[in-house]
Design goal:
The protein contains twelve helices and nine strands. It has 338 residues and is an alpha/beta fold. Strands 1, 2, 3, 4, 5, 6, 7, 8 and 9 form a nine-stranded mixed β-sheet that branches. Strand 1 and strand 2 form a beta hairpin.
């Protein structure tokens, strides 16, 4: 059988939860508020070095449909509180000024999260620049949309660095659309970290790092995955196929289930799968491969043809507008001085 060399394939994801294989074995603090799950992982220097990540705080927020009004308001509250906690952990005192940067391309909807978020922020720096009094409720906040190197011809980090040298903020917040390696997390996950960001890393198109080490001020990165590649969709579908057969097998004698058409049977919360023998019976040699081997094989098949496409949900225009508004309102609330 063709042997697959996994060493040449990188995981196409920006999410810490997908990057670490044994994520649950780390000291992850988990809590649930209003049906929204928040996971906080703090990596020390040794742990971070062992997985090729940076030491620091990683917060991952999981939510359902953001277009639902109740979910939206619950998520707004949770995100605001988690940002406040992070500001406190990083000792960003109330008088700290902030520059907020919206990374991405406004003309590409899945990549427009950052620029659209900037549109709804409460910007205050111009008030003090005009010599007017700023209410004690607000910090000095400025914003920047640097665009992408493909349209500006300038490295994003260089633009940000130039503005920082002029404006001199105490800390930086960067917002960007991310890539994920699971369809379940698209438009349903927020990652917040103090470790900075490498724009385009999830698409294997790394730009220069934007972090405290490169800019000499604290950097908080906020991201939401909006795209997956075709490899992810196909490999995820194979796993859903196993779960579907497991669900059907478990409910074969369930008389109530016989009245439900197969296309309407909800097995979303059915986390069981087939055993290795059953997988081989259904998928043959493919059924003997691990998840990583399946992904590597699919990528090996699709990439030379140019078919490993980046995919986003069809309702992305509506959802990205909601998500950007949510992030803007969360930042407005969390940056207020109470």
């Amino acid at each position: 059988m063709h042997e697959i060399d996994l060493s040449k394939y990188k995981i196409r994801t920006d999410l810490i939860v997908e990057h670490i294989k044994d994520y649950k074995n780390y000291k992850v603090k988990e809590e649930i508020v209003d049906n929204i799950k928040i996971e906080t992982l703090v990596l020390n220097e040794e742990e971070a070095s062992s997985i090729d990540k940076k030491e620091g705080i990683y917060k991952t927020i999981y939510f359902e449909d953001v277009t639902d009004e109740e979910n939206y308001h619950n998520l707004l509250k949770v995100t605001s509180e988690e940002l406040k906690k992070l500001f406190k952990d990083l000792d960003l005192h109330t008088k700290s000024s902030c520059l907020i940067v919206g990374l991405g391309n406004r003309k590409a909807t899945p990549d427009a999260l950052g620029p659209l978020t900037i549109d709804d922020l409460k910007i205050t720096r111009q008030i003090t620049e005009l010599g007017l009094h700023l209410d004690n409720k607000y910090r000095i906040i400025s914003a920047l949309v640097p665009g992408v190197m493909g349209t500006t011809g300038i490295e994003t980090k260089d633009i940000i660095e130039g503005v920082i040298n002029k404006v001199k903020p105490d800390f930086l917040i960067v917002i960007d659309a991310l890539a994920a390696s699971s369809v379940e997390r698209i438009n349903k996950t927020i990652q917040i970290t103090n470790t900075g960001i490498n724009p385009g890393s999830g698409l294997l198109n790394n730009r220069f790092e934007i972090s405290k080490e490169t800019l000499n001020i604290p950097v908080i990165a906020i991201g939401i995955p909006t795209v997956v590649d075709a490899t992810t969709i196909v490999s995820n579908t194979i796993n859903y196929l196993y779960r579907h057969f497991s669900f059907e097998k478990e409910n074969i004698e369930n008389s109530k289930m016989k009245l439900v058409p197969p296309s309407n049977r909800d097995y979303k919360n059915h986390n069981k799968t087939l055993n290795n023998t059953e997988k081989k019976q259904i998928m043959g040699l493919l059924g003997s491969l691990t998840d990583d081997e399946i992904k590597a094989l699919i990528r090996e098949v699709l990439t030379p043809l140019g078919y490993n496409l980046l995919v986003t949900p069809k309702e992305i225009d509506f959802v990205i507008a909601k998500l950007s508004k949510l992030l803007a309102q969360s930042l407005n609330k969390s940056l207020e001085l109470n």
